[in-house]
Amino acid sequence: MVVVIGGGVVGLACARALLERGVDVCLLERHPRTGLETSTHNSGVVHAGLYYPPGSLKARLCVEGRDRLAAYCGAAGVPYEPCGKLIVAQAGEDAALDALQANAAANGVSLERVDAAFIAAREPHVAAVAALWSPETGWVDAERFVRALEADVVRRGGVVLHATPVIAIEPRAAGGITIVTPHERIDADGCVNAAGLWADEVSRMAGGEPFTIYPCRGEYAELAPRSRGLVRGLVYPVPDASGHGLGVHLTRTIDGAVWIGPTIRYQDDKTDYERDRLPLEAFLEPVQALLPRATLDDLRPGGSGIRAKLHPPSERFADFLIRRDARNPFVIHAAGIDSPGLTASLAIGARVADILEEPHGFAQ
Q1: Residue 201: which residues within 8 A CB-CB, separation 6 or more?
Q2: Quick one: which H or E segment has residue 169?
Q3: Do the two domains 2-44+143-213+317-363 and 85-135+214-309 of this chain adopt the same fold?
Q4: Measured distance CA(329)–CA(322) in Å, rounded
Q5: Architecture of domain 2-44+143-213+317-363
Q6: What number of CA atoms fall less than 13 Å from residue 190's CA on the CB side?
Q7: Is the pTM of this model over 0.90?
Q8: Residue 225 in this model has a pLDDT that exceeds 70
Q9: How far is CA 208 from CA 162, 193, 331, in A?
């Protein structure tokens, strides 16, 4: 049996993939429900694979994962909208569009340069001098996706234990590990570390290799209901020059809400979603860069989420950590899964299952 630690979309996707390969699975989730952290505290955008360095796991698994996700949602009845998105540029940003288009092409992703008439037809209230159109970007109801994955895991014979944090991981003399929770001790052939913001702590418990998860909070505002007509789909600026994000963007959901964000703030606390929230005024300038007609009266407070990043603010990029632990062969990591983790989740699950099927499995 394999224990999957973490019941977000990545842990659930790993559990599902392992069950598909005939592996017995027990999934442990520290919260009363699955998907209560990063998985459902995001904008639900299904990324096409435009931004990530060519050859990286993020690039490859994003492209593979978006196709898997679309097919899964269609079969499972999860709300999914292949809406596409505009990446818009202001004066002096043409070179940034060119660089993004070249990066997307290197990842095998199509981006179309569009003219002012195209922009006006799709987003008449958006200001832009140039834009790229990404037809392969979409939006998914993340909450419904989590529920569908959990139901799938249970239907395939997996065990899901809610409100079950891991407090220790011990080696077994006969091989494998014992996962200790407040309620019981679970003997397992090995575990998948899909613990999100807590993946570094799980690795330490297991005597695994050291790494650090850096919590990075993203905050959202929303357009007031009377102003939602200003946005018809997904509208992004050119990527943030700092390399830490995609910039504050506009996301219209299937139910018609328009989210504004996320912002980026590294912090020490992995559980703090609300302290020192940004005022609405902080969103006005980036919104007006896209929607000149917007005023402060058009904005409302939104939610927030915390990304699990593998690099500090002094660095620009870290790839997903998806591999067998270098110190403890009974641990497979699916860690540091920030964007595009939602999009890539089903592909990440398949990759973890492939690792387990390597010669000798957890017995190396």
Answers
A1: 195
A2: strand 168-171
A3: no
A4: 13
A5: 3-Layer(bba) Sandwich (3.50)
A6: 25
A7: yes
A8: yes
A9: 25, 11, 8
